[in-house]
Amino acid sequence: MGAGGVAAQEAGEPPCDFDHPEWRSAQTVDGVEIQAEDVCRPDNPNTVAVVTKGTNNVAPEILMQSGLHPDAVRKHTDRDDDGDPDVVEITLEVQGLNEAGGGAGGYAIAPGIEPAFWVFAPKTRGMVQEGSSAAANIRMPSPPLRVEAGDTVRITLENTHYVPHTIHLHGVDHPFEVDGEGNDGVPQASEKPVEPGENRTYEFRAREPGTMFYHCHVVPDVHVLMGLNGLLVVEENRSDNTVQTVNVGAGKVRHPSAAVADGYDGEFDLQYQEVDAELHRIPQAQEDPRRIAKAMNREYDRGEADPDYFLLNGRSFPYTVRESLVAVEPDSEYRLRTLNGGSETISLHSHGHKVRIEAYDGVEVDEGQEITRDVVTLSAAQRVDLTLNTTDDGRHSYGDGVWFFHDHREQGVTTDGIGPGGTITMITYPSHQKENGMPDTNRPLDRFFNESYYRGEVPVWQGLDAERFGEPPATNGSDGGGHQDAEASGTETPARGSQGSLLSTIGAVLAALLVGILFGGWQAGGGRPW
Asked: Which pTM value belongs to this model?
């Protein structure tokens, strides 16, 4: 590359490479009606059917293709004779992603970026191998769970991990104790945590519908942020209301409940979370659980956390547009259930639309008091239910297109300081969507599906005009590539995320103070420079 030339960009990955395009279409599997999912990588329809009917109620070949264990979601006993089961038994495991000690690996949130995570996952069948149907169920975020108001729900936590965990039913109507044993998941007040190799069953019978939350309450300042949190939706009680109990990967709910189907044309789960790379590197640097616990609980300072990555449904842009597009039809209404699973307040902004706020933290807004706006704020652990209306009337929608939908905090749309990244997804209409489920944008997204872009090696506007916006020439005549300049001049350029800029700032401040002391004089009696 010559001075002022084009920065070399290594070969990237295909924006959409998926082996099962037939999964995108609307279909019926084992009697379960499954809506179309117009994204590059849709959910496995077999999994949707299994978690809707229950593992004990589907054909063996369908269960096998889902990768789920027979205990993952069992449903039985129609107590009120209304056509659907009223006892739901869910078994969750705790799984590690991208850890040094093994487990599921290769889970990337963006090109070349694979932090370690801990997640709740539906119990899987057999060995978890990359690319298997079982592995597809072990991912970020921990899956949204759905039950019906009035159901008896038993969630069994099988701790397949190497440190203690619990489940706390945040916002969910549940007893503090069941049969004399703690049921709140808080070790300091309720029951002892579930140790590795042990299991515990949490039970509730929710009386009120709403969008709730579940998470680990063992060292929650660390475990929640490692990924052990998810949506828990209590659906309105209706007849023949067999709900999709698990929504792997969140996003579109392909078998909505009877109440949602009555009032909406579709439903989406949107879960947001930030990632501090320092915390998530710990399980990648250590294998001994004692060393991991020490580093996380006694050495890592949560008060000094500095987020590097911002996730929507377990991914950052551009991977969000493969799985978490809000694909809509004109003149329709959609329910969006949003959760802030992180600790940073977020401000969701919808381009081309104004959304209506229907509920906060599982409590419906009084009729006539709903708020319509284009920026919605969610604080930590907050859930907000939204209605997206696609009627082109100048308020609810501005018409067809590919409209951004993102956190409006500037850092929330970056990935390790590089934009565009973070929580960006898009609201897409059929007229602006490709056959493979990707958005039909005016400019191609290909260059973002490349590790070198998020390493900061590619000028942001190079694709517009390489001469004007390409790599700048080096002052010493070498190519302007950062590290190349440093090598040619005999200096060292700090890597991204290093402390070089901080040390420079501290040095400048100290120098200024010294000059003030020597030349600025002293304030009488105060001992301070002017």
From this structure: 0.89
